[in-house]
Amino acid sequence: MYLIFSIARICANFSNVVFFVFEKLAEQSLTLMGWQIDNHWDLNINQCVMIAAPHTSNWDALYARLALKALGVNVRITIKDSYMKLPFGPFVRAMGGIGIDRRPKHEGEPRPSMVQLMSDLFKEHPKLVMLVTPEGTRAKQEQWKTGFYHVAISAGVPIALAYMDYAKKKTGIGKIVYPTGDYEKDMAEIMAFYAEISAKFPQKFSVDTRYHSDSMKQEIEA
Q1: How far apart are the first and last CA of the chain?
Q2: Percent helix, percent strand, percent coil in the chain, to nearest 5
Q3: What does the pLDDT look like over 35-59, one tens digit per residue?
Q4: Residue 117 CB neighbour total at 10 angstroms
Q5: How far apart (Å, rounded) are the C-alpha atoms in residues 143 and 126?
Q6: Model's pTM, two decimal places?
C-alpha cells in the first residue's frame, strides 16, 4: 500500500512538472500568436467563483488556462469524487480537480444540492478560485446555468469574469463582480460584459437572453 501511494505522489509531482513546462512554453506561444492577456485580477482575492465564456471550441480551454497561468491564478474545477481516487486521482488533482460527493450524509436524506456542496468548499479551502463554465456545452445556449451566482452569494465571494475574445485576440480576466444580492441586476451586468465578446464560432454563442436586452444594457451603462 505504501508503495502504491509513493508511486502516486511521484506521478503527481512529475505531472506537475510536465504541466508547468508545457504551460510556460505554450504561454510564450500564445504571445507569439498575437494574443493579449487582459489582467483585471485583484491579487488580494483569495476566494472567488470564476466563470469562463464563450465556450464554442476546445481551443477556449487552452487559451483560458494559459492566460490564467500567466496571471498566477490557480483555478480549481469540481469533479465527481470517484475520479479523485487511484489511478486517475494524482493527475486530476494536478490539473486542478477537486472532488464533489453528492451522496446523502445519512440514509434517507435527500442528496445535497451542487450549490450547497460547492459553497461548502469555500469553508474548507481558505484559498480557492472555483472555475465554472456556465454555458455547460459548446452548443448555443440562450439560458445559462446560473448556479455559479448562488454559490457566490452563499459563500460570500466575488465573481471573476474570464473570457476569450477571438476578434480582438484577447483573453484573461476582464472584470470582478461583487454580487449585491439583486439577482436580476447582477446577472444583467454579467451578461452585458459577455455580450461584447466575440466567440471563435459566433453562431454558437449567446448570452443568457433572460438577463440581456438593449434596455437593460442602457440602464447598466447609465
Answers
A1: 63
A2: 45, 20, 35
A3: 998 999 999 999 999 999 999 998 8
A4: 15
A5: 32
A6: 0.79
